Amino acid sequence: MLSLILRRLLQAIPTLFLLITISFAMVRAAPGGPFSTERALPPEVERALQARYHLDEPLPQQYLRYLGSVVRGDLGPSFRYEEYSVNDLIAQGIPVTARLGLFAMALALLVGIGLGIAAAWWHHSTVDRLFMLAAVTGISVPSFVLAPLFILLFAVLWHWLPAGGYAPGTIAPMVLPVLALALPQMAYIARLTRGAMLEVLRSPFIRTARAKGLGMRLILLRHALRPALIPVLSYAGPALAGLLSGSVVVEQIFGLPGIGRFFIQGALNRDYTLVMGVTILAGVVIILMNLLVDLAYMALDPRLGARG
Amino acid sequence: MNEMNAPAASKKQPNTNLGLYGGAWLRLRENRWARWAVWVLAILLLLLFAVGPLLSPYAPDHADWDHILVRPGLMASHYLGTDVIGRDLFARIMQGGRISLMVGFAGALVSLLIGVCYGAIAGFVGGRLDMFMMRLVDLLYALPFMFFVILLMVFFGRSFLLIFVAIGAINWLDMARIVRGQAMSLRNLAFIEAARVYGQSTIGILVRHVVPNLLGVVLVYATMTIPQVMMIEAFLSFLGLGVQEPLTSWGTLIKEGADLMEVAPYLLIFPGGCFALTVLCFNMLGDGLRDALDPKER
Question: What ipTM, to 2 d.p.?
């Protein structure tokens, strides 16, 4: 277990290195700089600004400097929000984005797995067909169509829930964003669970369990669920990546002050460090998530643990 | 391994004389949802690319200043109403659909080409090259690609070509993995051995024997990739980074509709509905193809 974690963390190093390098290269290859967008600054001022942020150094030196500071955990100063460092901005945005993502993920997993199990158990029944029709519809309607529709229905027409106005500690403004983000993933997870469950339910050990006269609930939850969850888990890593990029749009629509909004703002403002910081953060989250998934694999399938 | 599988497979499918694809075709035709999806898609393609432009008297970028925000059904010639500067929504949905679908097909083609070549080579050659190539895929999997694509679009303008390249570059990874697995299982089969004994080169074997045998998987995956690519394009367009004025796409129209939905909900509902329906049909067709080619899944 420990060796797996260590090995994964070692494997993550080249990934992170690539991530930082690509972000740096992309940001620096872009035309226009952080100080050249709005109005032309006097040359001395611009030179002073560039010197302050070390933009006057040769690129390789800038790259090494950035790499060094990232290794120390410092993502540098923001070019646009002058008072803040990128670390500050990210720390501001994380609670919002994390809450959005975690709630959406939890909802999608819980309901998705539940629906998938039900559909597999009543295979070929009306329930199965109905759920799967709903699921294929669900994966076809993306968050950015759902979100405005939800606002239109629940906020504008029926006044059930607010469409924005996020403040720390409030729950109501988060309901619609979480739903919009979770539904497509939920549909996908339901389909995956059903497929995996059908596969497992056909296997001999389930037939034995049925022959022994075990009840439905026992067979499903005690015997079939564990192996059936493995493909669902391996989807969870990419799903989180999807949630992260999806929350870029959802945050935009609902006016939530999360990481995604900073990212878009940063990209439009050529705020190099902010953009790179958010991208690196997203990469780190994906790497950590994949590690968690691997650990969960071992919990579900003991054979994997024995092999190391 | 394959010798063990072969008898079981032929027991399951009595119609083996039809060949793999013949049986699959029959099963696909029995699938009600897939049949519906094909009909809807056929009508849609016909409407978008052939009949649609003849039906509407308006050009998609023609601003009819006397008829701003006309509701659908109020005017005989503006079937679906007009937007905030009086452009005909029907004509714009037609144009947007053409572009969304073209992006979908082209993006899927790009990712398919890269993915199939990459996966076939890795799986067929095997050994160290395979290990290296798949390590690279694992590595790329861990990168937050949507973020890169957004940066790409923001920084380097929003050209059409770039959209294809960016989307193709994201989507080939899955394809490469799937094709590699299939190619690996093909590698040790007798007919490949025979071709090698015959003196055919590795590239010749890849092109003439490996790739044709991958067609089924590729077909399923391609059908599933088209809606994915359309989603990405719409996502980018929604952020204002995709297709630019005066051209439009369903994503752009959804964005415009979302901004105005309190005044004119139909501007959101019609493009959103068309988009969702199209993606739905592709997904259903993909499901049907998968079930048809791999009947044990059903």
Answer: 0.81
